[in-house]
Task: inverse folding
């Protein structure tokens, strides 16, 4: 009924939305810019970032960037 609400997992349990957010994080964008580019509320973007950090085992924003870079 709501195909956009289906969560599709890819490598490592990271969703396609989280992959898009990860790409923008690696480019150095702020949460506000990420939210704007992906057409979502900033709070929603922050939730996705937090889930991505948890999935990758990151304890800080800097470590998250490093882990994203390492994972390709």
Result:
């Amino acid at each position: 009924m709501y195909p956009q609400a289906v969560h599709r997992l890819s490598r490592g349990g990271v969703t396609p939305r989280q992959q898009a957010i990860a790409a923008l994080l690696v480019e150095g964008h702020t949460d506000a810019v990420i939210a704007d580019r992906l057409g979502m509320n900033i709070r929603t973007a922050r939730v996705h970032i937090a889930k991505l950090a948890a999935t990758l085992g990151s304890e800080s924003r800097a470590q998250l960037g490093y882990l994203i870079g390492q994972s390709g």
